[in-house]
Every structure is written in C-alpha cells, then in structure tokens.
Amino acid sequence: MNKQALVEMKGISKAFSGNQVLTNVDFDLLPGEIHALMGENGAGKSTMMKILTGIYERDTGTVFSKGQEVQFKDAKEAEKAGIAVIHQELNIIPYLTVTENMFLGKELTVGKTGILRMAEMKKKTEEYLSRLGIDIDPNIEARELSVGQQQMIEIARAIAADTDVLIMDEPTAALTDREIEALFKVMRGLQEQGVGIVYISHRMEEIFKMCDRISVLRDGEYIGTKVIKETNFEEIVKMMVGRDIGERYPERHVELGPERIRVDKLSHEKKFRDVSFSVHQGEILGVSGLMGAGRTEIMETIFGSRKKSSGEIWIDEKQVNIRNPYDAIQLGIGFITEDRKDEGLVLDLSVRENISLTNLKRISSQSVISKTKETELVSKMIEKLRVKTSGSEQSVKSLSGGNQQKVVIGKWLGIDPKILILDEPTRGVDVGAKKEIYQIMNELTERGVAIIMVSSDLPEILGMSDRILVVHEGKATAILDRQDANQEIIMQAATGGNSHEKSGS
Ligand SMILES: Nc1ncnc2c1ncn2[C@@H]1O[C@H](COP(=O)(O)OP(=O)(O)OP(=O)(O)O)[C@@H](O)[C@H]1O
Ligand SMILES: [Mg+2]
At the topology level of CATH, where does 259-504 sit? Predict the structure, then answer.
C-alpha cells in the first residue's frame, strides 16, 4: 500500500471490568476507500471505532491519523482531526428541532457573539437533507420523526461535518431501500472526493455492493482483511462465525390452521385507511413498504397503543375490542417494536430483569417471583438466542446493539403469544443470530402462532413469509402469495405502481 493511510490502528486491546472484548486488533483505512468492518453481534466493531474516536480509552495499541500518532480525548477532538462518526445508537434529542439537532454543539453564530445564524442553519439543514433525498421540515421537533428519519438526520449531521474520515456504524439499519439508495449515492460522492469510510453493517448485499475491502472480527480478535473482488459471501460468513451456517433462510413446512386474526377495514385518522388482511394459525404474513408508509402505525393500532378511527379486529372468529396494549396482551398478542431503545427495553436494568418484565405472570404465583423459575426462563432465553453477555446481571445498556435486539425478542417469547407482531425483528442482528431468530419464528408457527413480520429487508420478506402484504401511503396495495412475489413486484406495489390484488382468504 503506497497511499498514506488516513487511519491506522495497531495491536488494539480493550477489556471492560475484566471482560476482554478486543485482543490485539489491527485496522487501517485508505483515502477514497469504503472499508467494511464485520463480525457477529458483540464481536467488538463499535468498541473498536469508539477507541478510534476517543470515546473509550484503549488498554494497549497505537492509533495513527494520517501518519501521526494520536490519542483523542473525546469525539470532539477526533472530529477536529477530521474523523466524524454516525453512531449505532441514535444521538437525537427529541425535544429539539431538526435544525437544532443538526448543529448541536457547533451552532453557527455571528462573529464571537452568541447570536445564532438561524436562517443559515435552516438553509444548510435543508440542503443536506435534500442531498440525501429526503424532505423533512427543519422546524419540527425530532420526536415527531420515525426512527428512519432520525437516522437520516444523524447521517446528514456527520456528512455536514465535512471530514476526511467517516465512520458509519449501521447507518442503514432503520432505512428502507429508497433511502439507502440515496445514502449510497452520497457515499460514492464522498469517496470520489477521497474521503475514507468505515462501514459497519449486517446487510451482506450492501457490503458487497459498496465496499472495497472487508475486515472481520470474531470474539474481539482480528481474523483478516479481504479485497471484496477476491472473496464471497460464504467465505466472509465463515470468517465471522467460524463455521458454515448453511442456507440463510431455514425451510418452512407448516400446515396452516384456521384463521387466527382478521383485520377488517382498519383506519386511523391520519396514518392509514381501510387496511384488511388475515393471518392463519401457523402462518407468517410479511409486511413490506417504504419508510413512512404506515406499517408500524398499523401494528401499533392492532396492539392498542394507537386509536383506530374505524374498522374491526377479529381473533379466532370473535370480534375483539382492543383499547390499549394491556387488552392486546390479554388476548394473546405480543409486539416486538422496531424502536428497542424507547419501547422495547429498560436500558438501565439487567438482562434478567428485562426478560422477566413481561413474563412476570408466568414465573410468579400470587405475585411473588419464583427465583428458580426466573433463573430458568432467563437462562433458557439467553442460551436459545445466544445472547452474548458476561452474565444475566449485565445491564442491557452495555450489550452490543444486536444483543439488545435479542433480549427484546426473548422478552416476548416467554408470554407464549397466539399472535406475534414483529417490527423489524432482525434489524442490526448478525447472520448467525438472524438464522436463529428465523428458526424460532418457525418453531412458533409450528405451534400454531400467527406471525406478522414487518421488515424492510426484501430478501428476508421473501425468504420467510407465506404471504406478503404491501403498504403504500397508508393503503394496502397488494397481498401476494410467496410464490407469486419477487423484489420487483413488491417494490412496484410499495411505490404505488400496479396493484397486484389477490385476496387473502
Ligand atoms: N461500556 C461497556 N461496558 C461493558 N461492556 C461493554 C461496553 N461496551 C461494549 N461492551 C461489550 O463489548 C463487547 C463488544 O461490543 P460491541 O458493541 O463493540 O460489539 P459490536 O461488534 O459492535 O456488535 P453489534 O453488531 O451487536 O453492534 C460486547 O460483549 C459488549 O457487551
Ligand atoms: Mg455495534
């Protein structure tokens, strides 16, 4: 390599209170390169990047920035040296506006006065957002935005920092295809200007499409670096998990039973109208659509956390009245939300407490929690989902992103739902764990559970669903049998093209 590396990290090690999470890891980034950093959940990717940007202190090793040895004290210092980060955890402040979030900590002011150049900041915000192909009012508060839109703001903020190193830690996790395309265009533009990008993602298709090299970590150890043109999917998976995982989607052989839930002309004042579908016992209904199409809102309405304006819901051929999530849970509905940070988990509590929260009923008799039963359930879930923890007492906050997602799933599996709604169940989850989640879904359907899976990952929708409901701007534009569906047909229905109506029994 004759180009001067933008970043070079050598022999990096790090332990958190005795738990070794990185051992002697090397990494480098060249100008104009998109370099993927891959590994299973908990492999140490985010930690490695937090060490680079001074958020964590390393135990051993050296870091060079453009040939100079450095030791950043914090992210601000790293940014001054030309390194910007899009963190895996969103750092959006809900009660600030889009513009205020964009310029947080680097507000534009008039000379040395504290007077803000508001108009200019707004204009810049609009400019960067439109570069990313999205249209959001810069004056609204961030809490009104979807997770995907918040992620776009986070991305815009990092790009606006105008640096020569950009670290993207799962930037596309909450985005759908259209936004991802816009993001990729921007990345290509930066690449042409010589910016080096570290790209962390569990979406293999993206990695192979966008990256020049891949470095793989496993259990905090450096496994190797490959030039993308000289490697393939199987090799990378093997480097990551240390074994062959076989097919990405397990086979499904489920006999469908009678209708479990039927939603009839369900409408919500602003978000969607006249949505009808049914799911049978043992069936997986995939729900596809673009960001903002109303998929999550439909699910929230079924679960009672949003108020419907009209329409009916039937469970096991009886009409039900779901006024709130409590009613829904009583009727056997489980809901794994897309927003694990806000709704799915109590971050300050331990893995054990999070898993047993919803399961209190099952493990307690007369409201006394049986320690043995709790321990049994929690360790079963940890083992089943292969949650990487130092123990069930570890706080959920300090788990890696993908492992947090597994805890959310474990939390609901314990209630033995009749109907399970999964909103982006594998977002941020590694290939091995994805397959485990798919297998659990299959096991549940074999027991007669009806599953509704909202997902922005088209291969996943096609790989796992028996039927597919496509939503566009609050309307159901298609219900497809799996054998009649492909990516093009779904995308067309999702963007309001031809509707392929096919009534679902
Ligand atoms: N602040 C912390 N305190 C204790 N342990 C931590 C802390 N941060 C990370 N860890 C642990 O370090 C390990 C590596 O975590 P890291 O977040 O780097 O993984 P990752 O590769 O980014 O995974 P993912 O794909 O799930 O995002 C995990 O086992 C995690 O629990
Ligand atoms: Mg991470």
Answer: Rossmann fold (3.40.50)
